[in-house]
Amino acid sequence: MVATAATSAFLPIPSPASDSVGKTSGKVVGSIPAASIDARATNAKSKSTSSGRLQVKANAQAPPKVNGTKVGSMESLKTEDMSPPPRTFINQLPDWSMLLAAITTIFLAAEKQWMMLDWKPKRTDMLVDPFGLGRIVQDGFVFRQNFSIRSYEIGADRTASVETLMNHLQETALNHVKNAGLLADGFGSTPEMCKRNLIWVVTKMQVVVDRYPTWGDVVQVDTWVAASGKNGMRRDWLVRDSNTGEILTRASSLWVMMNKETRRLSKIPDEVRGEIGSYFVDSPPLVDDDSRKLPKLDENTAEHIRTGLTPRWGDLDVNQHVNNVKYVGWILESAPLEILETHELAGMTLEYRRECMRDSVLQSLTSIVDEGSGDSSHPGIVECQHLLRLEGGGEIVKGRTKWRPKFVDKIGSFGQLPHENA
């Protein structure tokens, strides 16, 4: 009873059971004897005591509220202690930990994708020269550069065109000068040459093609220079298959200096010779000089003539004259179609007589000299004479070409090809 009273004092919650008992006892008071009332009252008190104990447990789980605040429980104290702190500049900043976690997740996913990529080179040549920029080899005397044959560089025979090979030769020649640190503002001119308005011009080119590369092949081009007489320079090229080392093309050329302003030939100044002399090698040419005199060719002796050839703006180089590679294409314009369909160009000798300007109109003349049908050592070899001239009659390029039948694995050396050097 004392415990119930004390609990009721701190937790003044009316008991529904006691209220109902009180009301019932109040109603029966005038008709039931007093003794029974006392006995029932005693039972009611005992029941109220037990119900009061149950109320203490219930109230311990759900304490009352006064003005919306819990009273008499530890939970209310905890709630008051965990109230949010006042808003300041610091606690208004974003949750940087969430942002850093998101960035870290993105980087980890990107790194995983990066590692899944196969960056291993598919060809060994990519390890040597991955960007095709070339490099100096053999004690600084030879320049080497790799070229991949593109789909737009092959012709109807599914092999690289002769113009593509000639462009590779020209590119390596210029890159050789550049990598040697001698390239100035001119097109292959050294600093001393630029001071004197001098440029290099080719006078003779000899090319021998043993095999044409195909689409996807990688060719390795080596080039070097040597002295030629007192006022000339010789440049040689050796083209190999970068995977097998097989020799594909050999070429030799002769160059002289010309004044860019007067368009006249010039001697090599001593200052220029001092720049380039240390790069000359003492070696014989890769292609022996074909000194046979080219016969005169005109409209009366030529069998095939193509007229009305004019250079385009894209055919000019930085020296404002037609690029020498373009001459090769013009020469082949007059080659007989039956030869182009059944034969491939195996070698050529070109002699450059004068330059072609952008307003020139040219003619291409070709004559078949020897069809070679009766030559048992070189069956099917055809030789042609060519002339590229202005319509007024001035000679631009004279040439001789040799053709071999297509789809022949290997015919062997012909003409005056040199023995392969080690």
Shape: elongated
Rounded to the nearest angstrom, the radius of gyration is 50 Å
For the terminal residues, how far apart are their CA atoms? 123 Å
- Kindly estimate the percentage of residues that lie in beta strands according to DSSP: 25-35%
Q: How would you sum up the major sheet?
A: 12 strands, antiparallel
Tell me the structural class. Answer: alpha+beta
CATH superfamily placement of the domain at 126-287: Hotdog Thioesterase
Helix content: 25-40%
Instruction: List low-confidence stretches.
Output: 1-61, 71-80, 122-127, 409-422
CATH topology of the domain at 126-287: Thiol Ester Dehydrase, Chain A
> How many H/I helices?
11
What is the CATH class name of the domain at 126-287?
Alpha Beta
Average per-residue pLDDT, rounded, comes to: 76
InterPro entries: Acyl-ACP-thioesterase_N, Acyl-ACP_TE_C, Acyl-ACP_thioesterase_NHD, FATA/B, HotDog_dom_sf
Subcellular location: Plastid, Chloroplast
Pfam families: Acyl-ACP_TE, Acyl-ACP_TE_C, Acyl-thio_N
Domain Acyl-ACP thioesterase N-terminal hotdog: 141-275
Overall description:
This is Acyl-[acyl-carrier-protein] hydrolase. Residues 39-86 are annotated as: Disordered. Its EC number is 3.1.2.-. Residues 300-404 form the Acyl-ACP thioesterase-like C-terminal domain. GO terms for molecular function: acyl carrier activity; fatty acyl-[ACP] hydrolase activity. The protein has 422 residues and is α+β, with helices and mostly antiparallel strands. Among the domains are: 126-287, Hotdog Thioesterase (Thiol Ester Dehydrase, Chain A), CATH 3.10.129.10; 290-408, Thiol Ester Dehydrase, Chain A. The protein contains eleven helices and 14 strands. Strands 3, 4, 5, 6, 7, 8, 9, 10, 11, 12, 13 and 14 form a twelve-stranded antiparallel sheet that branches. Helix 7 (162-179) runs antiparallel to helix 10. Mean pLDDT is 76; it is low at 1-61, 71-80, 122-127 and 409-422.
